[in-house]
């Protein structure tokens, strides 16, 4: 058994400590959905979690839930697209925990329009949130990842959330598909540039996960972006289509299942996985 595998094996045998014992993870968009599930799961696996969300109340509620269960967490609210966001969340994390092991760039939303009616602002804001924001947060955290001294390195990784729309395109999602494709290129570049520092970078492409982005648009969920209300979800009025017929497992994923895949990528179980795009689709697209 190699030294690295021995380290991983030794870590896993001590299961009461968890896969992420004493590691620090920043998770954006962690107030609900996949992000919330990931925050709770990481905490159960021993991580100290920085819960970031646009909604302060939701972020704090998740952090409080973690602490109530005996874990460690702080809430850092903010718009990932804001100019001061990267420094704000990195500073808060380092002040509280002294290091950063993982960043999960999960925050995002959809702003669907058919291509010929897609306005510039709907294009620009999706690129800003899904590509520019992850890039700027990763860049701001670079001193805590680009560690030259091998003896000071711990398990460290970047996970950027993509989508099957970024792999295959999708009707009504030219902006979203372009952004989710771009983040794959960003991730592969991080993997190549920072691999020499022992940092892994991977993308996770989700298919149909049951969140507010895939719920019925008629339910009225929305998000306020730059002062504008953006409706979320998929129109269902008059639809007779079986939305899971194209999925071999014949169902959508629960956010907890999506979070488990994120945990795999950041954990020692994926210690030799970098530059990869993990498709979590229930078999769709094969």
TrEMBL record:
Pfam families listed in its UniProt record: adh_short (PF00106)
Signal sequence coordinates: none
Coiled-coil stretches noted in the UniProt entry, renumbered to this chain: none
InterPro entries: KR_dom (IPR057326), NAD(P)-bd_dom_sf (IPR036291), Sc_DH/Rdtase_CS (IPR020904), SDR_fam (IPR002347)
Highest taxon, organism lineage: Eukaryota
Keywords, comma-separated and alphabetical: NADP, Oxidoreductase
PROSITE patterns with a match to the protein in the record: ADH_SHORT
Molecular function via GO: oxidoreductase activity, acting on the CH-OH group of donors, NAD or NADP as acceptor; quinone binding
GO biological process: fatty acid biosynthetic process
Ketoreductase domain mapped to chain residues: 23-197
Protein family per UniProt: Belongs to the short-chain dehydrogenases/reductases (SDR) family.
Name of protein: Ketoreductase domain-containing protein
Higher taxonomy: Eukaryota, Fungi, Dikarya, Basidiomycota, Agaricomycotina
């Amino acid at each position: 058994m190699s030294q690295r595998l021995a380290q991983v094996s030794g870590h896993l045998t001590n299961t009461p400590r968890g896969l992420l014992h004493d590691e620090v993870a920043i998770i954006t968009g962690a107030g609900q959905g996949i992000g919330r599930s990931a925050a709770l799961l990481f905490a159960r696996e021993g991580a100290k979690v920085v819960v970031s969300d646009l909604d302060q109340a939701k972020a704090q509620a998740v952090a409080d839930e973690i602490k109530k269960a005996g874990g460690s967490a702080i809430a850092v609210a903010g718009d990932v697209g804001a100019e001061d966001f990267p420094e704000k969340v990195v500073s808060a994390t380092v002040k509280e925990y002294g290091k950063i092991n993982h960043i999960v760039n999960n925050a995002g939303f959809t702003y669907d329009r058919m291509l010929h009616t897609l306005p510039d602002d709907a294009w620009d804001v999706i690129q800003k949130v899904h590509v520019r924001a992850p890039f700027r947060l990763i860049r701001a955290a670079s001193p805590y990842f680009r560690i030259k001294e091998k003896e000071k390195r711990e398990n460290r990784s970047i996970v950027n959330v993509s989508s099957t729309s970024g792999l295959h395109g999708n009707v009504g999602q030219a902006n979203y598909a372009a952004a989710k494709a771009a983040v794959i290129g960003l991730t592969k570049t991080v993997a190549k540039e920072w691999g020499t520092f022992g940092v892994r970078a991977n993308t996770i492409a989700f298919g149909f996960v049951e969140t507010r982005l895939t719920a019925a648009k008629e339910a009225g969920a929305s998000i306020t972006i730059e002062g504008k209300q953006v409706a979320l979800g998929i129109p269902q009025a008059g639809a007779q289509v079986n939305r899971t017929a194209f999925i071999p497992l014949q169902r959508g994923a629960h956010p907890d299942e999506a979070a488990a895949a994120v945990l795999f990528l950041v954990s020692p179980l994926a210690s030799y996985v970098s530059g990869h795009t993990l498709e979590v689709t229930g078999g769709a697209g094969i």
